[in-house]
Design brief:
Strand content of chain C: 15-25%
Radius of gyration of chain A: 25 Å
Oligomer: heterotrimer
Largest interface: B-C, 70 and 80 residues
Helix content of chain A: 10-25%
Radius of gyration of chain C: 21 Å
Strand order of the largest sheet of chain A: 1-2-3-4-5-6-7-8-9
Largest sheet of chain A: 9 strands, mixed, barrel
Chains: A alpha+beta (275), B alpha+beta (145), C alpha+beta (336)
Structural class of chain A: alpha+beta
Number of strands of chain A: 9
Chain lengths: 275, 145, 336
């Protein structure tokens, strides 16, 4: 029997291929060609710019429902918004003693959180504070400067053997490129900083590895591995996007918060005015 | 030539006024420490805080009656020492040091470390390890790698 | 050293703003002959390369000593003598002069880093304009402010605001702007991209971002401790213009009307010529300018977390309160 539908079937097939081909190509293209940032003069992905995290990692890096804050007078403005959490796997793997310490920190937030005293936030907390930060990229050194408390740190790109002679708030950063990703190894922390306002903390054995990858012209993917054998049972990861600040003539402004905390910290030591 | 030198010599006193660094006035050490309460302490280092704006050396001072007093001794910026090759391991706990200084105005067991020496009279952070250079082994308070 | 001398030091350095002078042109004329002949290295996009870590410790004073009036430049022997004398006079390991002076010298030599050399041109002052190397006179109001400030600093502190910005750990004493040589940590690192230059001062870990894209300054209502800086190239010289200061500033008692113009020129492989002109009609009777060459260094810049370790502020305040309490108690005992 002659196949009178053969022509129609062929036409249909051709039409289907014609319709689906662009999609197939696009999908393949997306899989074959992830976003590549424009290059700097020395041929590296250009991550320069002013970036800021959204979300509520600065309140609590673990997933959390909204909850009241400790200062009644602030009402809704002082309450803690909900967050899906940025910790992979959901929970931070504390050792038992450290889990208790975290709880103690959380209950003692106002007195114990170094952010409240305008102390340097450390890494990675500096990245996701609710303030912008700027990446200034040069071949041998990448400067990251944060609006909060004018914190800053230099990532040494050309000195992999350079060890820090002392412990610092912002750690000691050494970086290298791995394809599209800036890999930063941070060591030599003191034990004074927290990861968020929820009391999540570390010891002076903290070791942080950060990955910065441009995923779109105006967004980076920030991935962090935290390792601290004194505090956690194993290394753990957090990740979040960082968004480019797009305002015209945007610049970091000053948030030198020392003067905002002097009354808090030194008020009781002031001279009492005569009655 | 003679005149120029003598001008310089005569001017040296005034020069000190003019070249004395802002730091001489910046910290108002006289506001923190009491020139009328000199102290001389000998004790073992328990730890050193390599911090700014001033490093602090904690020492245990054994009194004649056997009691131990815990003193905090203020130094300068550690960054100067770090640039000369010293590290947080450079003043080991247990090291005996002698502190000539002035006690805090509030009467607490704090003093400025006006002169820090080892028991043999050498200054504690004398010389340098050289920035990045191998340690020369001359400073016994340094950790040998 | 007597109390009077110590007070004079405080007055000189903490409180003495200076009149305003014109452009710093004489420094350029006097810099080494190599200046015109030498070509600075360039970044990959063709700008003069100012990058690196620069050390601005120097023994040359800001102002020409009165005894050297009229003498603009020292000979090599005079410079060596000057350095030797200054280091002897300044040596913190000397213990003479009484206990007030002793406390004032504070610590052993090994903590300090004032610099041991005069600047390469052997000029007798960092000030280049006015030509006499002296900061111009203060306005009458500025003189009054200086006296008031001296009084506040002399007496026991009522609160942290009585102390200087660097004792409060808000701004570093040598960072300005403009930058001036101080007792230690005279270090600055410069970063360059096509869009901006960033000036990172070790004290107090402050990164001053200077856009080069011609954008306007912040609006007048937005004022900052370190002002607001904008940059442009003038040939091979980076010119940085800073306005929008808060009141008071970090520089010699000047006011929010301070206007700073800095010029950065790489004049040799290891020398960055730093010049500044300051202008504040509320402080100095005319603008004035200085030139302070900086030397390239491989020594790293270290973190200077100041506020985090500021036991000193607590001690200053507890000391003041203890003094008041003692005086109260003495008065009570006396009146019984």
């Amino acid at each position: 029997m002659p196949d009178r539908l053969r022509g129609a079937r062929m036409a249909f097939a051709r039409a289907a291929v014609a319709a689906l081909l662009p999609l197939a190509v696009a999908t393949a293209a997306a899989q074959a060609r992830p976003y590549k940032a424009p290059r700097t003069a020395d041929g590296k992905p250009d991550l320069s710019g002013i970036w800021q995290a959204l979300g509520t990692a600065h309140w609590d890096i673990e997933g959390h429902a909204a909850r009241p804050g400790p200062v009644v007078a602030l009402g809704a403005a002082g309450a803690v918004p909900a967050g899906l959490g940025v910790v992979e796997g959901g929970e931070i793997p504390y050792q038992p003693w450290a889990a208790a310490k975290k709880k103690e920190n959380a209950g003692n937030w106002l007195a114990a959180d170094p952010e409240i005293k305008c102390y340097l936030p450390g890494v990675p907390r500096a990245t996701y504070m609710p303030f912008p930060f700027q990446i200034v990229q040069t071949p041998k050194s990448i400067l990251m400067t944060y609006e909060f408390a004018s914190a800053s740190r230099v990532i040494h790109m050309d000195k992999p053997g350079f060890e820090s002679p002392f412990d610092t708030w912002m750690g000691h950063s050494r970086g290298r490129w791995k394809g599209e990703t800036l890999v930063v190894d941070v060591t030599s922390f003191n034990d004074q900083t927290w990861f968020d306002r929820a009391g999540n903390f570390h010891s002076d054995a903290l070791h942080v590895v950060e990955l910065y990858t441009a995923i779109r012209p105006d967004a980076l993917l920030y991935e962090v591995t935290i390792e601290d054998p004194k505090v956690f049972t194993r290394p753990w990861k957090m990740s979040m996007p960082l968004y480019r600040r797009l305002e015209k003539n945007v610049q970091l402004l000053e948030f030198k918060c020392v003067e905002f905390v002097e009354e808090l910290m030194y008020g009781p030591l002031r001279k009492k005015l005569a009655n | 030539m003679q005149n120029k030198v003598s001008v310089l010599v005569a001017g040296a006193g005034l020069l000190l006024l003019l070249v004395a660094p802002p730091a001489l006035a910046h910290h108002a050490f006289a506001a923190e420490f009491d020139a009328n309460r000199p102290v001389r302490l000998k004790g073992a280092v328990t730890r050193m805080e390599w911090i700014n704006p001033h490093a602090w050396i904690h020492i245990d001072v054994k009194k004649p009656d056997g009691k131990v007093e815990k003193w905090m001794i203020e130094g300068g910026t550690p960054n100067t020492l770090l640039r000369r090759g010293f590290t947080k391991h450079s003043l080991l706990p247990g090291t005996e040091i002698v502190v000539d200084g002035y006690q805090a105005k509030d009467g607490s067991m704090k003093a400025n470390g006006r002169d820090l020496t080892l028991p043999d009279g050498r200054k504690v952070f004398m010389g340098s390890s050289g920035t990045g250079a191998p340690r020369d082994g001359k400073d016994p308070t340094e950790v040998k790698k | 050293m007597s109390q009077l001398v110590l007070t004079a030091v405080i007055v000189m350095f903490v409180l003495a703003p200076a009149p305003i002078a014109g452009q710093a042109s004489s420094a350029r004329a006097k810099t080494p002959a190599a200046r015109g002949a030498w070509t600075p290295p360039r970044t990959t996009w063709g700008a003069p390369d100012l990058q690196g870590i620069w050390d601005f410790a120097t023994i040359t004073p800001m102002e020409r000593p009165k005894e050297l009036a009229g003498k603009e430049v020292l000979t090599a022997e005079e410079a060596a003598e000057f350095e030797k004398r200054t280091l002897e006079q300044r040596n913190p390991d000397r213990r003479d002069g009484g206990s007030q002076a002793d406390v004032g010298r504070a610590y052993n030599q090994f903590w300090w880093d004032y610099g041991t050399k005069v600047i390469g041109t052997k000029r007798t002052s960092l000030v280049v304009d006015p030509p006499d190397g002296r900061i111009p006179p203060l306005t009458p109001q500025a003189r009054q402010r200086a006296e008031t400030r001296a009084e506040v600093l002399r007496r026991p502190a009522a609160g942290p605001e009585d102390r200087n910005l660097w004792e409060r750990c808000i701004l570093g004493g040598n960072a300005g702007p403009p930058m001036v040589s101080g007792a230690y940590n005279n270090n600055v690192q410069i970063f360059q991209t096509p869009e901006q230059v960033v000036i990172l001062n070790e004290m107090i870990n402050d990164a001053r971002i200077v856009p080069l894209d011609g954008r306007p300054h912040l609006p007048p209502s937005l004022r900052q401790w370190r002002g607001d800086s904008r940059g442009r190239w003038d040939g091979d010289t980076l010119v940085v213009d800073t306005t929008n200061f808060r009141d008071p500033t970090n520089f010699r008692g000047s006011r929010a009307t301070l206007h700073v113009v800095e010029r950065f020129t790489r004049v040799a492989a290891d020398t960055l010529l730093y010049e500044f002109t300051v202008d504040d009609p509320q402080t100095w009777t005319r603008p004035w300018s200085a030139a302070m060459p900086m030397t390239k260094t491989e020594a790293p810049i270290f973190e200077y977390a100041c506020h985090e370790g500021n036991y000193g502020m607590v001690n200053i305040l507890t000391g003041a309160r203890a003094g008041e309490k003692a005086a109260e108690e003495a008065a009570k005992t006396g009146s019984r």
